[in-house]
Every structure is written in structure tokens, then in C-alpha cells.
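User: Fold both of these, please.

Assistant: Here is the first one.
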Amino acid sequence: MTRATRSLGALAVAALAAAGASACDAAGTSTGRRVPTARVARATLKLDVWTTGQFKATRVVSLAAPSTGGGLRLIRLADTGTAVKAGDVVMEFDPAEQQYALEQAMTELAEAEQTVIISQASIKTQVAGDEVGLLNARYAVRRADLDAKTPEHLLPGNDYKKRQLTLEEVKRRLTQAERDIVSRRVNREAGLSIQEESRNRSKINADRAQSIIDSLVVRAPIDGLVLVRENRDATGGVFFSGMSLPEYRLGDTIPPGRSIVDVSDTANMEITARVNEQERTMLVVGQPAIVRAHALPGQRLAATITALSGVAVRTRDQAGPLRQFEATLRLDRPDTRLRPGTTVRLTIQGKELPNALTVPRQAVFQQDGRSVVYLRRSDGFEPLTVTVVGQSESRTAIEGIEDGAEIALINPIASASSSTAGSKPGPAAAAPSPAPAAAPAGGGRR
């Protein structure tokens, strides 16, 4: 064999070896090298919680149309967002119908008062006549009594008996007159009471009409911000979910008792926010927070947690599989520029975990109720159960793994299954379902 032949053979062997290495590299890439990985690092982890929230008034007073028995027409209404003081006029209704009712009630009252005055004068006249008749009856009794005291032997014939009978008769008349006077007095008092009751009823109607007219001007009971409600009567009673309704406006006819305006107390507001169940365990009442209001860009406001809900919030817009809990905060120094409904970003300052084993948040997966990471081995990845100690916005502190270990940032089993299904025709080979990654802080809300 010549030297040239030996050189050609060596080149061929080298080419075959390179091809084999390339094939091995390709195989390794298809199974594991395409999976991004990270190293477990030991560091100090600050357990801050990031979430969003909004300002909410702690006291809201609802103002409604007065009860008048009929529809009312708006002739004055403060716009949404108007700042009012206690006693300021917020809305006013047309008083035309109530003024007519007041005038009618005043007329009836005047008529009833005149009737009472006439009855009282008539009663005084009748009482005087009764007193005169009673006085005459008593005089007759006195005179008959004196006549009856004359001795019988001084009178002729039957005069003595006549005088005795006359005395008895006038006494009977006096008794009857006294009874008649009492009966007439009772009747007159009853009639006068009926007329006075009619007058009182007319006065009540007049007072009620006047009070309704006064109630047609609705004033703010507290200092605050006006929010005009939606007019649900604008569609004629037809309403469906998602329908856009106009606010109440001037000229609308409103049923009595309908709530029209809310006045929110802006001097005493709180912030409501939601955190997931993992972050809920890291929060306590009195914990400080930094507030960044979207209405005040570039400004940081200090706040404190005042309340934490112990019951999960039921909502359809929940982000992620973790349950949500409500947290309430208050600013350390209230800012008059903020309004109810203003959205904010919250950084709730948590404790520090020194010398903790940390990994990226996306490297921890939930599988069958356990927290697992995929540890890199020489022949692939192995799921390893770990204990989550704490989480920040981007890092998770765990236990049960060695420092410096290499772990996958995505589910390698799901990645391999997807790769196999894409390279082969027909049904893909069965693979374990990928475990969902841990939800980001605040349910993914920043």
C-alpha cells in the first residue's frame, strides 16, 4: 500500500468520524440541547410583591329622586367628576306640579280655617243663649220656691197646692234645661272637632306639598366627587349584558325613589388590590408599600396594608390557576389630586431571604399539586420535587436541590413531544402532559 493510498484512507476515516460526531450532536440537540437551561444560584432574595389596584372611596352617599307619587323632570344636574361641598346643589327637579298641589292645599286650608272661625263664633252665640235660658230657669225656680213657702192658712182654696206643683214643674224644667245645655255643648264640640280635623288635614297637605317642593332641590350631604349613574330607563325597560347605557341628563323624566347620583368622599380613600394565594402568605397588616399612580406619573407614594381578605375572591377574569385574595391599603399621606377609580401599580415591600437557593420563576412547575424542577442529567432531564420558600417578581427561592445544578426553563417532556410530533407523519407518540408554570406575581398583573 502506497503512502498516497494510506493518506486517502485516513481522510476517509476522519470524514466518517466527523459525520458520526455530527449525527450524535444532532441527536443530542433534538433531545435536550434545544431546551434552555439555568443554574441554581445562591443569593439574597427580597420578597417584594408586585400587583395593580385602584383607589376606592370608603364612603359613598347615593342621592335619589324624592318620593312624590309621580315622575319628575330634571332641570339641573351636576356633571360627573364635579367636586362639591356639603350643602351644594347637586340636582334639581321641575316643581310645577308640586306648586299647583301646594296652591290647591293652601286654598283648602284657608277655607277650612274660615269654617272653623264661623263655627266658633256660632258656638259662642249659642253658649250665651243657653246661659240666658239657664239663668231664667233658675230665676223661675227661685220665685216658685218663695211662693211655695207661704203658709197654707194664709192662702185661699187650692192655691197652696198649685204653688207646690208649680215649684216641682220649674225644678223639672231647670233640670231638663241643664241636660239640654250639656248635650248641645257636646254636639257643638264634636262638630267643631270635625271641622278642626278637616283644617288640620288641609294644613298637613299644604306642609307635605311644601316639603316636597323643598326636596326637589337635592344637596350634597358630604364633601366629595359627583358620579352620575346610568339611566336604565332610557331603553324602555329592555336591557341585556354588555349594553351601553347613557347617563342621566337634563330633561329626563325619573320615577320617584330612583338613585341618580353618587357622591364619593375623596378625603378618605383606600386602595384595593388582588394577590394570588402564594403571595398572600407573605403579606401582613401594617406592611409598607410603594404606590405609583397612573394619574401622577413619576411620583412615588407611601402606603400601608390595612386589611387582608381571608376568603378567595370569586371572579371570572382571574389570571392563572391560583386563587386571588383582596388586599386593602391606605396612603400614609392622602393626596387631593387622586380620585376614586384611579389605577395604581403597587410594590409591597417584603422581607429578605439571605443566602437562599434561587432559580428563575419559570423554572418551577406545578405537577400533581407538587412544585417540581427538571434537573439536567447526562441522559436527559429528570423531574425533581422541591419546596418553594418564597418568590419575587423574577426569582423563586427553593429547597431540595444543590447549588449550581442545571435545570430546564421549559418543560423538556412537552418540548420533546412537540418535536417528535412535528418530525413524524401520523399520530404523535404519547408524552406526559406538561405541567403549568407557576403563576407570575400578582396573577400576572404588573
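And the second sequence with its predicted structure:
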Amino acid sequence: MSDAPGRPPRRGLTLAAVLVGLFGYSALETAISPALPAMMTFFGTSPDGIAWAFTALLLVGAVATPLVGRMSDLADKRWVMVGVLTVTTLGVVIAATAQSVVLFTIGQGLQGVGLALVPLSVALVSDLFTPQSAKAGNGLIIAVGTVSTALGLLIAGPVLTLTPFQGLYWIALVFLVPALIAALFIPRTAGRESSARTIDAFGGFLLAIGLGGVMLAISGGKLWGLGSVPQLITAVVALGALAWFVGHERRVAEPLVDVGLMRTAPIAAACMVSFGIGFSTFAAFVILPILVELPVDAGGLGGTATTTGLYLLPLGVAGVVAAPLVGALERAVGSRVSMLIGTGAILAGALVLTVGHRNSWANVTSMVLVGIGIAVALTQMLNIAVTAAPADRRASVSGLAFVVKGVGGALGSLVGATVIGATEYSPTGFVVAFAIGAGVALLTMAAAVLLPARVHEAVQSAGQPAGSAA
């Protein structure tokens, strides 16, 4: 695809805008976790009060991701990318300048739109690149997201010793603003002629209530208490809205989410694997940092946020190395085996954590395995989504898969935090939490077995329109 007759497409600029914006956003959302105590002091609020600011980000992200995915299926992805980066950048500015927790929460909520950057980037790359180049591009997207997560924690400690927590937001703008400017000049992508130019508004409303309610019920377990009446009511309303949403989407001519696609084996398996990846990796991103920063006399490793970043850095480096190779791996061994390699590496990392989390080298080894597993499994999940979904559903399907991953991660974090909290952060609690992650990783491998040996060939033999990945 080109901008104009006789002019080559600016694919390099497209990829740069995607990767720079994604790096800045992902690094910020990781780096602010160690800044929570400073935020509570600055705004004069309780842990529950500041937690709602981050709950707002998750709620908005859960709703915005499928909506943005459908918008990018219908419209010029360039302007959808510009819109997402604009809203995200505005949210960062508001959070950085907020003098009250209410304004800070609004800023965090606007940043939730940025959670749609990954599926939107995948759809943009699949439109502008050749099938094999798109697979490599998907690998780079996952690699950047992985390494930025690790680097965010690594830089958080030094930055917070030099500046107030607002400095983390200003650093993120150094990446987001150039990405926004570059996005204005990426090649145009036309909307799908076969699709209606409208979005199912009522379906979007039901999805917002359903997904938002699920995320609120999960995060509310930490605020209201696990099994409390507010949490149960929220969960019931959310599940009812999702059930209504599924029935509604089956009846409308142009659904927001084509639930019929969820019955196809590759997409259903990819969503199950995505949920499992989100859940099983909570041990690396939530439980291990708690263990590292817990004082030695309380049974922890007595580290700091910087120590946590150093432990997680191998995860990011391994992801950067592994993700771009997934396309070649799939060509060599097929879709199912590639996914089994990725989920198997996550399982191996979780098992190492379970038996060796008191040992520094065991933790580093575990992070390398988890980094490889996340990179391979998530890249393969994206490749499957754009292969098995029709061309006008790539972004919405990959977006839904990432929402499912987010729900899995939130649920895993709640379960893990509940387990170690119930045992008062005893060694047994950490072992049980890591073992739960390993158990879910094993189930995730079982879901990967449901994939066809080679998704592209299975889609073609079924007579379905394949996406860009081959």
C-alpha cells in the first residue's frame, strides 16, 4: 500500500511510531507501581483512594480496546492511531499536573485508552506490510511491550530518588509526543468497503457494563473484601450484561464483536491461551516483586524497586530476542507446536519460581524462561488472530484477545495477593501462589493443544477468509 501513486509507503515511519508510542506507554504503566506511596502522600489519600485511580485505567482499557479495535476495522487506522495517542497523551499530562486525586484519577482513566495500542498496532502493521513482514512486526510489538515493562521497573527507583513521581509521566511524554507527531504521517489505510460505517452503539454499552463490571469486581475484591456484597452484586450485573451482549451481537447485522468467530477453533483456543498467559504470569509481575522487596526479617529478599527491575530485566531481554523469531519458528514447526513451546516455557519458569524463589540465580533463570514464553506465545496468539479472522475483523479479534489477557492478569493478581495475604506473607504462601501460576500455565498448554497444527492451512481448507499472517 502506498500514500500516493509512484510513492513508496512509509512503512518504517509507521513501525517507529507504533514502537516508540508503545514503549513510552508500557514503561510508564509499569514504572508508576513503585511510586504508589509517594502518590498517597502527595494527594493525602489512603491506599484504597489511590487504587481507584488505577482501577479507572483498567476499566477504561477493558472497554476502549474492543471499541478501538472495531473502529480501526472500519476507518482509516492512521486517524484511529492519532486519536488513541492524543487521548493517552492528554491523560498523561493531566496525571502529571493534577493537584487532586480526582483529577489524577481522570488522567489515569484517559490513559486506559492506551491499552488499545497493541491490537491497533497489529492491525496497522498487518495492513501495511507483507504477511511475513507483518509476523516479524508482531514480534517486535510484543518484544517492545515486554522489555518496556522490565525497563519501567528498572528506571523507577533511580527516577524517584531524583524527582517527584510526576517525573515518570514527563519522561513518558518524551516518547508519546514524537509518536503522536509521527502517526500523522503514516500511510493511509482505507476502511473496509464491505462493512457498514457505523458501530453497534448498544452493543458497546452492554460490553462496557459487562467488561467494566468484571474488571471492577476483580479489583474491588481488594477494596471491598473478597466475597463481599458489593463485589458479588457487581459480578452478577457484569455477567448478566455480558450474556445480554452475546445474545444481542448474534442478532445484529454488523456486530461490534462477531461472537460467531469465537466458535472457530483457532480463535477460541487463542483467547483461552491469552487468558491463561495473563493469569499464569502474575507470579512474575506481582508476586516476585513483593517477595523481592519484602524485608529479610519478614521472609523476603530485602531488595528495592531497582532490585526488582534488575530481576525482571532478563525477562525483557529474552522477549526482545525471542519475539522476532516466532514467524520463522512457526514456519518450521507449525502453529500448535510454536504455541506449546511458548506456553511450555512459561510453565517451566513458573516451576523454577515455585521451587527456587529464594535463590537469585533461580529467579533470573525463571525470568528468562517466562520472557521467552510470553514473547513466543503472545506473538503466536497475534499471528493466529490475524490469520483466522476475516480481514475486516482483525483488530477487533486481537483486541478482544488482549482484553481477555487483561482479565486473566487481574484475576491472577487478585488470587495471588489473596493467597500470600491470607498466610501473612509466609514462605508457604509464596510457594502456593507460585504453584497456582504453574498450575494455570499447565492448563494453558492444554488449551494450546486445541490449535490446528498449522492455522493458515486449516483456515484455507475450511474455506474461511484468512488474514494477513501466513
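Residues 200-255 form one domain.
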